[in-house]
Amino acid sequence: MNPLTDRPSPALLPMGFVDLLPGEAEAEAAGIAGVMEIFARHGYERVRPPLLEYESSLLSGAGEALAEQSFRLLDPASHRMMALRPDMTTQIARMASVRLSDQPRPLRLSYSGDCVQVGTAGRETDRQVPQVGLELIGPDLPAADAEVVAVGAEALDFLGIDGISFDLSIPALVWALLEEVPAAQRVPLVNALDRRDAAAVAQHAGAQAGLFLALIQAAGKADSALEKLEQLDLPEALAGHVQRLRASIEAIGKRVPGLKLTVDPADFRGWRYHTGICMTVFSTRSREELGRGGRYLAGNEPACGLTLRPQALLRVARLPVPRPRCLVPETLPQASREALHEAGYATVSALAAPESPGGESLSEATRALARKLRCSHVWQNGKVQVL
Amino acid sequence: MNPLTDRPSPALLPMGFVDLLPGEAEAEAAGIAGVMEIFARHGYERVRPPLLEYESSLLSGAGEALAEQSFRLLDPASHRMMALRPDMTTQIARMASVRLSDQPRPLRLSYSGDCVQVGTAGRETDRQVPQVGLELIGPDLPAADAEVVAVGAEALDFLGIDGISFDLSIPALVWALLEEVPAAQRVPLVNALDRRDAAAVAQHAGAQAGLFLALIQAAGKADSALEKLEQLDLPEALAGHVQRLRASIEAIGKRVPGLKLTVDPADFRGWRYHTGICMTVFSTRSREELGRGGRYLAGNEPACGLTLRPQALLRVARLPVPRPRCLVPETLPQASREALHEAGYATVSALAAPESPGGESLSEATRALARKLRCSHVWQNGKVQVL
């Protein structure tokens, strides 16, 4: 897409906000509905938190990590600051720990909605970000991690997206190791890690250089990555992360045999609220992330979630087949319209129709009108005729 | 609903913003999906404008009427003010006249999304307002008005909402008559009209008092209201409004025989951008407005639209039947899960299941777990068992 030519007036909409046209909007809605249907089949129940909340609530606790991505606005009713949500996971966590605290665990929740992010200065990114996701709140078990991955993979499969892989990481492990590095070296080390620049990592990681380089080199298929990680001399408090990673990978393998799993142990991106295993979803059809998720604390409770990005799914999913359009006279009775709807047609009324010739054949004027209104069929003399 | 007791912490969310819980959120989503399905059957195609736009674009032209209901925020990327949309009709009009200007007319568009309104100080109203609507852009015809009413009525019927009536009005006529009144009297007259306070109307309307009182008194069933309106001595420029009202009412009667139609000629509320016939939708099941719409200008083009309010529909619609939940062992193969989904069950994995007794009967532990997770069925020994 060329942003200079595809948008007639670049000044019309703020950077990162777009109009979805017919076709695009339908595909997005169908994709979200499909994902939510799969979530529902596995017992996930829909909730809908509001678009904005008080800053003090939305951006506290785990939400602190979101502060710099949030637009704020003043509530004239309370004279308090509100923030547009940049992410929904923290809202679901709040609902789970307050409104739904008396519901039995495991609590399975799903959601879909728009988030708004400030974006990065100078970078053209989406700022209105639809999300569709699920959260499994309660059990801190490998089987719970596996369920989140399995249901996410099934949703992508349902949309006709193939070549799926889940890339696993443990950002909490990386952040813990970064604590061991002298404070002055952390920012350059984080940047070096982000680029997977081995030389710069070695330069800034000091005594931990061997460990950080080993994390980078361990990246790859899940089995081989696990083997490499298990040979590392990690501090005892962190070795548990690797043990859990193996248990979760084994649980995923049992639940979704054949799913492609990779591990990128040097990955530490994303929201800072994750406490354990994290996952990023890719398809071989695209370089773009299709979603991400992982383990975090919902209040004081263990939770694992996955958020898919409908805008990314849209670019690789099988598109819904538009229903055929049938031109009908404005005077067609409702019962006949309903019969056409039952048969799968959209009825398009000719509000100011040309006179029907009355015969079996379609007049040129009718054909022209049908073509203009993108109708493939015309209702005439009590039946559907192909244009 | 008692706002003091129904919300555990009133300070948690800003006034007018709510969490929808499981059940509520599902009902809202199902209602929106149902309405959009009916719109699609009649050839309306979905578009999705962004949640926010530059103030200069969103609140110009017809959008000026929305300015006082809009939250504004600064775009750090462009240093320009943006506004959260309080309404979607003006966005659809913008899309029709810019991005979709080369599409043939009539252009039929549908949309659903959240709007955010500043609200009225001291009044507890929803401020996050979901909307679902349709716009018919191009023909300025009674048949077009009738199509919008017919498709809206069908959508409500599809949701199981009965006792529907459409209350028609012509705010543009009232505003034009208000221009005839001395400026100093207009505000008290508008307030008097809003209360349908005949004495106060007579006091402030001066020479126009007879006309304004006649408008109030004409309210009622469409046929009798039309007769009364046609006897009024309206300025010639305004008499056309009444002629068009009759033509539209006749077209609606042909398209939806039996639909209850009323006329309230003194009604002038709502957005100020309407130029012709307006409609407010009610059901005998509720005093609340279910939606409203009318005729306006999309850029320079005649257009007629209707916006339904999912939150109001939700309170009167037939609720979707939740799918039965079946407790399954975590190890259940995917093929068995899919068979249960096909049969209409949601599968709920017992992540840390009690040992199965192996026999035909359900153990007490299994029963207790199923009950806890609100499952009506349990998968055991290769089949579904009722709890």
UniProtKB/TrEMBL annotation, chains A, B:
Superkingdom of the organism of origin: Bacteria
GO terms, molecular function: glycosyltransferase activity; histidine-tRNA ligase activity
Compartments, record wording: Cytoplasm
Keyword Transmembrane among UniProt keywords: no
GO biological process: histidyl-tRNA aminoacylation; L-histidine biosynthetic process
Function: Required for the first step of histidine biosynthesis. May allow the feedback regulation of ATP phosphoribosyltransferase activity by histidine.
Protein name in UniProt: ATP phosphoribosyltransferase regulatory subunit
Lineage of origin: Bacteria, Pseudomonadati, Pseudomonadota, Alphaproteobacteria, Acetobacterales
